[in-house]
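so the lab meeting is tmrw and i was supposed to have these ready like two days ago... anyway. pasting both below. for each one the top line is the aa sequence and the line under it is the structure tokens. i havent really looked at them closely yet so no promises
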Amino acid sequence: MEYSLYKLNFTTALHMGKHSGGASLDDGQMTIHADTLFSALCCEAARVGQIDQLVKYFADGTLTISDALPYAEEELFLPKPILFVGNKKREGDASLKKKLKSLEFIPLSSFREYLKGLNQPEVNLDKLSGIFGHLTTITRVAIKGNNPPLPYHVAAWKFASGCGLYIIVRFEQDEALDTFETLLANLGLSGIGGKQSSGLGKFKVQQSPVPAELIELIEEEPAEYQMLLGTALPVDAELDKILQNGWYTVVRRGGFIRSENYAPGQLKKRSIYMLAPGSCLPSRFKGGMYDLSDNGGAHPVWRCGRTLFAGVNL
């Protein structure tokens, strides 16, 4: 197994709807889930006749990716582990508990220190927090079918200078990685997320070295817990065993089918619930590939339930 890392330097704002399943235009999030990245890459692959090959790479484990997670300058950030550690010395500090709850990402350089600190009375939150940009509101006007035209608002994330998102890729074949790199570069030109027709979601790709500390975490399979670095879902046969004695959050995954050949009109994918990044389980799992198409569709619509893990020791 080999690893590669790609930084996405966004040249425009990014609209990525929250995974809560509600209305998404006027709200959004900063990161991009692994299954969303896979779906976007499939759209690019379909344009150049490589969709079957790309799906095969992910289905057989030749390619595996993380969520697109934040970075600030040279610092990479990981999801905050979803864990419960009873600490009576901190239970009475409501302010600290609130700050810890609002913390979403942990710097890679402080990750092991953060885990050790969970059992300590003091936590240095200033060292852990990061500022990556801000959510802004863009006003657009809907003209088609509206007389008079109606304004509407789109929430979009604008990254601060030196900040963006990064993807970790595990690969087994150079040919597969070349395909991934080409499709990712094309995706940067097309855009990812919502309102691409308005120019949102465009980025430039920069390949960067994978820090040795990050590879150590990814390969730490004997660890006490295995933390998801992206959205994933075990197959039914392994679900109960995997979740037993684990800590996890479930996220709803839906969205529209972006295919010109699937059906005459734009249709929604069947919704599915997946494990969120940061979920900590007692062991790793392979995960499944899920066809979310309906009987009337012209082709399968795949949702990738596989991602990378990082070892977590308390």
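ok protien two:
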Amino acid sequence: MKKGTILTMSILLITTLAFSQKDSLILVNGDKMIGEVKSMDRGVMTFKTDYSDKDFQIEWDGIKEIYTVTYFLITLTDGRRYNGYLKSTAPGKIKILTDEGETVNVDEKDIVFLDDVDKGFWSQLYFSFDVGVDLTKANNFRQYSVNSNLGYTAKRWNIDAVYNTLFSKQDEIEDIKRTDGSVGYKYFLPKDWYPLVSVNFLSSTEQQLQLRTTAKLGMGKYVIHTNRSYWGFSLGGNYNNENFSIDSVPDRTSWEGFIGTELNLFDIGDLTLMTKLFVFPGITEAGRWRSDFNFDAKYEMPFDDDFYIKLGFTINYDNQPVAGASETDYVIHTGFGWSW
């Protein structure tokens, strides 16, 4: 066989193999794309191609057919989770080929999350950080705030950490300081149930709290889990330990119940809305109850969706505060941030 023929066949073979190792999409407008599906979350797919320096962001409902050689963690609306590949069988219908040799046929709209599990540890991380600054000439007012979030999502579990702080200073008025944070763990079960464990802390000059540390243990369930939103409830017990800034006030230790709800709306153009509410009825302190409420609105910047403007509102309530402390403490945060 001539050397030229061998060379030609080799090039064709290499090209065929290279092409076969690519994911492919057919969009509803008829366009075809060849490349790599990196992830899909909250109704938006991230797709990488060889001919563009920047990854494409594609609406999930804008995809007519999908064929992947990439190996994914796949989450469905009913809470089922698989590792495997995707292959369209008809418009709106997808076959999941799992790593256990199982074939699962689903509707396209039933898939709410994809992540390339071959990308390693760093690809499973997510992070956001935003800062806010307010300055006025009157009374030499200065206020600084920082909000941050770090998490990791695996096939069956998720861990999430939050740290927020605010410092306000002006002439002839006592400084205002508030810091809160949490570390939470969820293990995902079938039917979108999950046990949860979390440790939270709060320091607030308004409520005379040097440090409140709580530990929650409970069970939760997502009653809505789609590419447009999720809504869940949780229930359990909470251990509460409080140290106060007033020397004459003894520390408090108590047990509480808790019931919580969380709503996340993320298919509103470039806007995302998140609301959380937890209520803590006292068990060892009869008649006492507390509540924590959070609302965050995040708008992704048109020039780069990794950057955003954020408006947040947080309020804590305690119907039996210590003497000299306020029943409520709230923060309104505006800031500019970056997420990864």
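from a quick look at the 2nd one: The first strand starts at residue 23 and ends at 27. The two ends are 54 Å apart (CA to CA). will dig more after coffe
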